[in-house]
Amino acid sequence: MTIDRSTAEKLDAADLLADYRNRFVINDETLIYLDGNSLGRLPIASRERVRRVLEDDWGQHLIRSWTDRWLDLPSRIGDLIGQHLLGARPGDVIVSDSTTVALYKAISAALDARPGRRSVVIERDNFPTDRYLVESLAQQRGLEIRWVEPAGTEGVTDAQLAAVLDETVAVAVLSQVDYRSAALLDMKGLTARLHSVGALSVWDLCHSVGSVPIDLVADEVDIAVGCTYKYLNGGPGAPSFTYVRADLRDQLRQPIWGWWGRREMFDMDQGFDAQPDMQAWLSGTPSVLSMAAIEPGVAMIAEAGMPPIRDKSCALTALAVDLHDEWLEPQGWVLATPRDPSRRGSHVTVARADALEVTARLVESGVIPDFRRPDGIRLGLAPLTTRFVDVYDGMARIAQEG
Question: How far is C-alpha 77 from the chain's CA centre?
């Protein structure tokens, strides 16, 4: 069946989330932005929030802002993310550090909590930072890396994970949504598989938070880390968040001790006495301007609700898959994303040998996707800002360029 543009227009007219797009800064309506899973658009409220922090908090209130406006930012924003997007309880989540630093803390703490176990598991196709951190820690500690071989479009299965597990494995590092294929893993099932051999789970939520429903408590996840600059629209380089399961906190101690993680931090006393809660996972002074920009975007997602967001995400990706089948497959493109909407996140990847050259031509023509080596064009479909006509027009342009 031929899909015409009126199909996309009708979907936009029925979109329950359509009005949220008007709450973002969009200066060029002709630009087709399909990279919201790398950098989300700027919420208008975030621009105003940062301006208030600059002009009022910093400009007028100066250092007094620490005590009455800023000290609770890591935990307050952590609770907002945790309770509305992660299925977490108050006090389960803290915001601080870059994603890389947060993952380093998480993996290190998990390894320390399993002394005597000499293996760590990670997928060979996981995001580079995750792999590099595991390689670094394995080299420092003399550990064996158990690689889950590339799982392809469908992502890591229970059988693949089970094949590399035994009683020597301390921790496995997994991404809930694959950054290239968008494969959505069975977080509950894979975590249970790890627990069956006494290993801990560290989950990377960077490509899932804000686009798929997550319930860390129900899934019995041990530790999770995620970024805030993709679907949460927190801005470039915005700090990440860390979740630690409540009953594990007294067993896990993050390795970068700083004054913000110390009980009675302003005592400036000798010796590190860790906070008794998630604030123990803080290290140095948080970046206030970056943190302030996170809150409005997360609040907007909480207001919209994850079920409608997930519904639209599935509809957006389904349209992209259908258009791939009609237009791109005959041109030699291959769908590098699961066909089952329940098995994919909120992006779609199409692959062909000349994808890098096609991406460059798309950018020149006003379509912004993302190229992922070796041969993939990744289309990030952010439910609060991406329209169905954006998907239609973007796929049409790929077909024209191809």
Answer: 16
Largest CA distance in the chain: 72
371 given a catalytic annotation: no
Phi/psi for 21 (5° steps) reads: -60, -30
Q: Are 81 and 214 in contact (CB under 8 A)?
A: no
Residues 209 and 325 in one domain: no
pLDDT in tens, 169-205: 999 999 999 999 999 999 999 999 999 999 999 999 9
Indicate which residue of 20, 24, 104, 127 is catalytic: 127
State how far the Cα of 300 lies from the Cα of 12, in Å rounded to an integer. 19
Q: pLDDT digits over 356-384, tens only?
A: 999 999 999 999 999 999 999 999 999 99
Cα–Cα distance, 380 to 382 (Å, whole number): 6
- Burial (CB count within 10 angstroms: exposed 0-12, middle 13-18, buried 19+), residue 384: buried
On whether both 319 and 393 belong to a single domain, the answer is yes
Q: Which residue has the tokens 């299925």?
A: 87
Active site residue 392: no
Question: Residue 212's domain spans which residues?
Answer: 71-302
Catalytic-labelled residue, pool 35, 125, 178, 204: 204
Domain of residue 140, CATH code: 3.40.640.10
Which residue is catalytic, options 20, 24, 179, 229? 229
Of 21, 49, 230, 397, which is the active-site residue? 230
Q: How far apart are CA 212 and CA 111, in angstroms?
A: 28
Catalytic member of 23, 378, 387, 397: 378
- Statement to judge: residues 294 and 315 lie in one domain: no
